[in-house]
Amino acid sequence: xxxxxxxxxxxxxxxxxxxLVVSGIFSxxxxxIVHSIERHLVSEELxxxxxxxxxxxxxxxxPRLDSSTRFFATxxxxxxxxxxxxxxxxxxxxxxxxxxxxxxxxxxxxDQRYLLVQEQHEFEAREQALFDVVLAGFLLxxxxxxxxxxxxARKVMAPVTRLAQQVQHRDQLHPAAPPLAAEYSDxxxxxxxxxxxxxxxxxxxxxxxxxxFTSDVSHELRxxxxxxxxSCELLEAVSLPPRERDLVARIGRAAEEMGDxxxxxxxxxxxxxxxxxxxxxxSLASVAAEQGERWGTPMRDxxxxxxxxxxxxxxxxxxxxxxxxxMSNLLxxxxxxxxxxxxxxxxxxxGFRVEDTGLGIPLDQQDRIFEPFVRGERARGEGxxxxxxxxxxxxxxxxxxxxxxxxxxxGSCFLVVLDHAP
Length: 422
Fold this sequence. Notes:
This protein is of the alpha+beta class.
């Protein structure tokens, strides 16, 4: 989950966690060292006092003790060992009784036990004050690390944020756009800006080559297509046998279809991403009637039954070239991949369907069939697998959606949902 956080937040979290671990280890080390030193010093002090007390007792003198220290021994009835301290081992020990705590030093001499008991109140107060200081220092260091981490993250991320805003908001693809690396120092951010400059430079060259290519295509292809279309019109005006007249009609339709494809490709290439979908003046019914007449004849010649149905009335207007391109490609595919049965062009409100009783498309290939140069395992003809890719590109630019489903017992259904907004 940490890798999904913003980079600045990850810097703050890492900085705070590092301080938390270091300060925690340091604080625990202080507490442990203080406790160890306390045991050592108090044990040494009580050992010296025990030597003095035993010396005084051996001379028949009362033990010299301060007000916080008491002496117990098994040899003196007036100083018998209390039950609380009866089980303490030889040497230094700490005994806690409710809210009271004592240092106990025990010495055994010839089956006799001698104890020095000292109250811990003063030591505990000092120790608690030290622990409070350590805890306060630990919390302040963590809070300071968080604040310092925020400042450092903001400082570190400032050039990255500025670079991202420049790449996002400036027109970097314009040939006159200044390089980004000149505004940054020779560090990692500067190297990143240089990489952006290099990538954007290559992209500018690629776009310029594409622009020149599309300009050449629009000029070089439209002229011969116009000549072919004009020649077909002149031939249709001449009295020709039925077979030759059909061939001229096919040439004319092919030229018209090629002109639509050229216009479609040029429009898709020249469109900017921020442009809205292109509207038009053609209705769905008019384009469908034209395409039904265009593809109905070759389907019937192949022995297929072609049906043109209207399940709903759609009164919106669409871009004629784009709509013809989408519908024509879907009907062409249905013709190629249907050997017997029926092909249907079904109009509905806000869209249309192309249904066939052909080979069908396996479920695992239905998503990939719209990718460029993908033809599937049952490909036919000499196509390159660009027809459905072009259909999806047109639908994406126009705000339309296309989906595919299986028909039972066999066949496929392509559903195109049109966006009414021009």
